[in-house]
Amino acid sequence: MLECDVSTASALMDVLHDIDRRGWSGDWYFRGQGDASWRLSPTLFRGSITTDTTGNASLANRQDLVDHENALVSAMRTVLCKKSIVPERHVANDDYLLALARHNDVKTRLLDWSRSPMVGAYFAAAGSAAEPPQSAKFSVFAMARIYAESNQMKGSRIVEPPDGGNENLAAQHGTLIVQAWDVPDLWDSRIATQTTPQNLVDPSSNLNTRLLRVNVPTTEAIKLLAYLRKRGVDGASVYPGGRGLVQLAAELAVQALDANGRLLLAGGQGPNLYLDPSKHVSRNDPSPTASTNDGGSPSDPTTPPEAPEESKA
Questions:
Q1: Taking the domains of the chain in order of start, what are their residue ranges?
Q2: Weakest mean pLDDT among 87-91, 141-145, 180-184, 262-266
Q3: Beta carbons of 125 and 218 less than 8 angstroms apart
Q4: CA angle 156, 160, 162 (to 5 degrees)
Q5: CA distances, 162 to each of 26, 42, 56, 96, 210 (Å)
Q6: Strands 49-51, 57-59: parallel, antiparallel or unpaired by DSSP?
Q7: Contact residues for 283 (Cβ-Cβ < 8 A; gap 6+)
Q8: CA–CA separation, 209 vs 2, rounded Å?
Q9: What is the pTM of this model?
């Protein structure tokens, strides 16, 4: 695992496009997170992760989560058989059912990734602009397919279910990681190596370096959204339909308000204007006060806080 910091939105996109263009190690997948202190964990695991004194993470109520997934898959299959025209071959596919649930705001152990570096960057910037940051950075991850299919994943696996009936998955050029029950967090800061953007991808290096992380100051989030919007990636493009139109309007509004240090917050169910100055961290404050999240204190590197509900649906 390799990690680097860049100072600007344009530097981030240079790094991501370089990874994608060179194509070392085959296909690459990208994921954005709005706060660099969040775990690399799916929604179903959040709030259930515990960490021992050596930094090893595990699920406190694993069997309850397994039961949740089994019940969800069974219920999805029953409903789609009776109430939809989804092809039977899709209904019989557990990965398809879980992906459809994930992209309709149901908690699952699927973690969203995209084949597009710009989509990955979009979700990082949108997530950072949406909520008061606990750290001063947001992150974009890149994973090579050879890494995703290796024993480095410890049982987690990459899946590309059919996107029929799942418009968001198609629009986001999506792929997913089904995270193993024994791997609550795909990123292990204990073994991550800090490097420079120039040395982030070395074709001669070992397999462990094919999971990458690029951190960017939160002050660059609005600039990154504007950069991506000029290139056709925005709320309306990643969320087909009415939700995407509202998301785009929200992004335009926050760009207009950002000069006054105001934030547009988007919860798990969609965007909303948040103008109460007592309840946000100014974009002009480079060192926002950290607060405790479900995963622990951001100041404790062994117990990183967990992300809130993802904006992807």
A1: 2-279
A2: 262-266
A3: no
A4: 140
A5: 21, 20, 35, 6, 26
A6: antiparallel
A7: 218, 219, 221, 222, 258, 261, 263
A8: 6
A9: 0.79
**Angle between helix 62-83 and 94-102 (nearest 10):** 100
Q: Output the six-digit token pair for 198.
A: 């120039």
Whether the Cβ atoms of residue 131 and residue 265 lie closer than 8 Å to each other? yes
62: nearest Cα among 153, 182, 186: 182
- 70-99 pLDDT, tens per residue? 999 999 899 988 888 878 888 888 988 998
For residue 150, give the nearest of 140, 161, 142, 158 by alpha carbon: 158
In single-letter form, the type of residue at position 103 comes to H
125 CA to centre of own chain = 11
Q: Are 45 and 126 in contact (CB under 8 A)?
A: no
Q: What residue type is assigned to position 64 of the chain? A: D
- For residues 185 and 192, what is the distance between their CA atoms, to the nearest angstrom? 13
CB 32 within 8 A of CB 122: yes
Compute the CA torsion angle 209, 215, 221, 224 (nearest 10 deg).
Answer: -40
Q: Which residues pair with 111 in a beta bridge?
A: 177
Q: Which amino acid is at 149?
A: E
Q: What Rg value do the Cα atoms of the chain yield, rounded? A: 19
> Mean pLDDT throughout 5-29?
86
Q: Is the pLDDT of residue 119 over 50?
A: yes
